[in-house]
Design a protein that fits this description.
This protein has 860 residues and is an alpha/beta fold. Helices cover 40% and strands 14% of the residues. It folds into 4 domains: 259 residues, Response regulator (Rossmann fold); 178 residues, 3-Layer(aba) Sandwich (Rossmann fold), CATH 3.40.50.2300; 50 residues, no CATH class; 269 residues, Rhodopsin 7-helix transmembrane proteins (Rhopdopsin 7-helix transmembrane proteins, Up-down Bundle). The chain contains 24 helices and 27 strands.
């Protein structure tokens, strides 16, 4: 009763007044081709389409309908079923003594028409008689159909009432895998669980991050949008727009008015199309070639990009990339296609109609047209948009589906034979179709290509894809070139491959297609997100100093390794040059020459003092201290040479300690000289006990004690945290500076502080004794020398701290030389002037005369 009511609704539906705004157009008779056999398999394929013009509701629906049109390429699906049935019938080891036949119907993308065809199949007659099967129809065992989700549901709703097995060859849909809702429906196609991952991998490979998405307005489209948006978001790519295409097989003149302008006006030049050839029927006729030439298309597996009118619109898809299910080449199928013609199957009027339509064999023909219409003409001569000699993934699935039914029947017949089934011959040959379910659920076999086929929904295989490039130049035949693969279950790095050299781009190449929400940020720049905009909308800002970006569209700039530094463009790292204060470079050479010159000058002055050692001016103020001071100054100049050249462990240990000790000796000598002058003046007073302190050993003891204290400091320094060779990576860009690390900074400044303390003491004593009456009183000169000395080293401290790298070493060398020159010039140059140029003042008579006038005797 339910079936009868359902049928009456279906029959009245096309002419119901409530549905007049969307008329359904049916041809006068349903196309059907059949081959008889012991068992019959039904096939529902989309072979015809119907065009509908504008319909106002006032005219009869049939008057708004155009004639049915062949979808030529889908005829390969019929041939795949025919080939598999013939192959099975010729195989003595599979279903022996049983022949398979088939009934093929056109599957319109229409609820009412699909229901009508299904009822015709169940009734076995062009007259629909619910719950009644015409003679011979009880041989039917299964239906192969459901190119789309909606067709599978429409057929399954009716077939499930009779538990009739339906094997869907269309795209895998998780909803159809529900055993509660669809217990009699089986899906042959592999799962597209990772298709969106492969598409995003392709987008990332070419740097496409501003992409439009097109899908049918149904559940599969919603799922695709969700998966793509999630995966793209994870990989910092953005969806420029999403467009839902109305699901219809009919072509309305105004059908593309709503969505095509939005697609054309989008700034996205890369567009992904998901769907199948039936649900995207409208898109076949909706392209405006004047605009779409400048788009890059990525097409998923089930929308045959070549199924459309062959005109200028065809070339708008030139260069498209297609994710196509991998299929194994079935042995003998191409040969079968080459031999197909109406002569081989004279009783097949369906084939004859197809042949006449595809080769335009109607009316008066020219000689060339007659040759095309010859029965010996091969399908191989047809262009790609009419027929493809390579087995499509749908045909491959149909081939496997027929074999799945055959193997299920074969196992059923074996079991029936083993249990000694008792019954008439008819019952033995024709099993009941509902008995096939238990065998289909667990079917597993290897097809003729050696590929394992599993129909169990729990073990359904995951789709693997070839990436094809559609090349449709106006003067060349259409071709699909394999340019890559996506194997989801392969190890990372081997799962996605693409050969860019094999790709022929369309009217816009892969680099030009990167225009989107924002321009690409080149190397040397980083992305700065725009507030309130998607992550693909950003500004480009240059990397800060010291950082680089060596790729396009980097989110962050990175620092170079320590041994490298950024180049001027900040898009790469250059190797740093190893450097130090080299004696061969101008600064080092100048400092070295200065040190040698003044050390020689000091040695010359020492020689003068030795030569004139008996003169009063040399003997005054303790000449031994003068010798010690000159020798220490000579070493002060020479010790600066330890700071030049590549630092080593030895030079790092010696440079600061030798400098500290010899400078301490020099400053101690000056301190001893100053104290000697003061003591000598005090000793001239009658009855003074200080006279006993005015002896050479006292001054020598001062020098020795002060120097030993500095030696103690240096020994502690070397014993606890000695200086060592080190590298400075950051002081000078582009250079690795080899320097001496002072080890203990506290010890270093203690040594300098002790020298400063001695120098300050010498300055204070000399300043207080500067006006003592004495012919050869050198405290004035010592005051000036210590003023220079203290000024130099007080300036040294902040300058040393503020400089880096080689400049720090140069500052210390300059301080050593300048302070030493200050001591040498202020103390000894005036004496040399008297010795060499004013010798009359360097006599005993002159000394006595001055002494008698001043009542002061010189200290010898």
């Amino acid at each position: 009763m339910f079936t009868l009511i359902f049928l009456l609704l279906v029959i009245e539906l096309p002419f119901s007044g409530s549905r007049t705004e969307k008329p359904l157009c049916f041809p006068q008779s349903s196309p059907c081709v059949s081959q008889d056999g012991d068992l019959i398999i039904g096939g529902f394929f989309s072979l015809y389409s119907v065009e509908v013009s504008s319909f106002t509701g006032s005219e009869h629906p049939h008057k708004a309908c155009h004639a049915s049109q062949w979808i030529y390429k889908n005829y390969q699906q019929v041939l795949a079923l025919k080939f598999s049935v013939e192959e099975i019938n010729n195989n003595p080891s599979l279903l022996p003594n049983i022949t398979l036949g088939y009934h093929i119907y056109n599957a319109y993308h229409s609820d009412a028409r699909t229901m009508e065809s299904s009822l015709m199949w169940l009734s076995g007659s062009s007259h629909i008689i619910p719950n009644y099967s015409c003679s011979g129809q009880d041989k039917s065992v299964a239906i192969i159909g459901g190119a789309t989700y909606s067709l599978s549901v429409q057929m399954g709703t009716l077939l499930e009432l009779y538990r009739f097995p339906q094997i869907s060859y269309g795209p895998f849909d998780p909803i159809l895998n529900d055993r509660v809702k669809f217990p009699s429906l089986y899906q042959m196609a592999p799962m597209d669980s990772f298709l969106h991952v492969g598409i995003v991998r392709l987008l990332l490979h070419f740097g496409w991050n501003w992409v439009g998405l097109i899908a049918p307005d149904d559940m599969s489209g919603e799922t695709f949008f969700w998966d793509m948006q999630t995966e793209m978001s994870r990989n910092n790519a953005c969806v420029a727009f999403t467009e839902k295409i109305p699901v219809s097989e009919r072509r309305h003149a105004e059908s593309h008015v709503a969505f095509m302008p939005r697609i054309l006006q989008s700034s996205a030049t890369v567009i992904v199309i998901h769907g199948d050839s039936d649900t995207l029927m409208i898109l076949r006729h909706s392209q405006n070639p004047a605009f779409i030439l400048f788009k890059v298309w990525i097409v998923t597996s089930h929308w045959d990009i070549t199924v459309r009118p062959h005109n200028l619109v065809a070339y708008s898809f030139h260069g498209a990339l297609i994710f196509s299910h991998q299929t194994k080449e079935i042995p003998g199928f191409k040969h079968f296609l080459r031999t197909i013609n109406p002569t081989k199957y004279p009783d097949d009027t369906f084939l004859k109609n197809f042949w006449n339509s595809v080769f335009l064999c109607t009316g008066d023909l020219t000689a060339v047209e007659e040759e095309k219409c010859s029965p010996n003409t091969s399908l191989e001569s047809l262009p790609l948009h009419h027929f493809d000699m390579t087995m499509s993934d749908l045909s491959y699935t149909i081939y496997n589906a027929v074999y799945a039914v055959a193997w299920a029947l074969h196992e059923m017949s074996l079991i029936r034979s083993e249990i000694g089934f008792i019954g008439n011959e008819e019952s033995h040959v024709v099993p009941q179709f509902w008995q096939l379910h238990s065998f289909l659920r667990n079917i597993q076999f290897n097809n003729s290509a050696g590929y394992q086929v599993i129909l169990d929904e729990q073990r359904n295989s995951v789709g693997e894809y070839d990436i094809l490039n559609y090349q449709a130049c106006p003067n060349d035949p259409e071709v699909l070139v394999n340019v890559g693969k996506f194997l989801p279950q392969a190890p990372f790095g081997h799962d996605f491959t693409i050969c860019e050299e094999a790709i022929v781009w369309g009217w816009i190449d892969s680099k030009a297609s990167q225009a989107g929400c924002s321009e690409t940020c080149g190397p040397g720049f980083r992305k700065l997100s725009q507030e309130g905009q998607p992550v693909c909308c950003f500004d480009c800002v240059q990397c800060p100093e010291g950082e680089i970006s060596d790729h396009r569209d980097m989110d962050y700039c990175v620092k170079c390794p320590e041994d490298k530094f950024p180049n001027g463009m900040r898009d790469g790292c250059l190797t740093k040059e190893v450097t130090f204060l080299n004696i061969k470079e101008p600064l080092g050479f100048t400092l070295a020459c200065t040190a040698l010159f003044f050390s020689l000058l000091t040695a010359l002055i020492l020689g003068i003092f030795v030569k004139y050692q008996e003169t009063p001016i040399v003997k005054a103020n303790n000449r031994n201290l003068s010798y010690v001071l000159l020798i220490s100054l000579c070493f002060c100049f020479l010790c600066s040479l330890l700071f030049l050249g590549c630092p080593s462990s030895v030079t790092c240990l010696l440079r600061q300690t030798i400098f500290a000790v010899v400078f301490t000796v020099a400053v101690s000598s000056i301190l001893a000289k100053t104290i000697t002058v003061v003591l000598a003046f005090k000793a001239t007073r009658p009855g003074s006990r200080i006279r006993n302190w005015v002896r050479p050993r006292v001054s020598n003891s001062i020098v020795l004690i002060c120097s030993l204290i500095q030696v103690t400091f240096c020994s502690i320094w070397l014993g606890t945290s000695p200086p060592f060779p080190d590298t400075d990576m950051n002081s000078e860009p582009g250079y690795i500076i080899i320097k001496c690390n002072e080890g203990s900074v506290i010890a270093f400044y203690c040594v300098l502080g002790y020298m400063g303390f001695l120098a300050l003491g010498s300055f204070v004593v000399a300043f207080l004794a500067r006006n003592l009456p004495d012919t050869y009183n050198e405290t004035k000169f010592i005051t000036f020398s210590m003023l220079v000395f203290c000024s130099v080293w007080l300036s040294f401290l902040p300058t040393y701290q503020s400089t880096k790298g080689k400049a720090m070493v140069a500052v210390e060398v300059f301080s050593i030389l300048s302070s030493s020159v200050g001591l040498l010039g202020c103390i000894f140059i005036p004496k040399c002037y008297v010795i060499l140029l004013r010798s009359e003042r360097n006599t005993q008579e002159s000394l006595k005369k001055s002494s008698s006038n001043l009542h002061i005797a010189p200290c010898l």
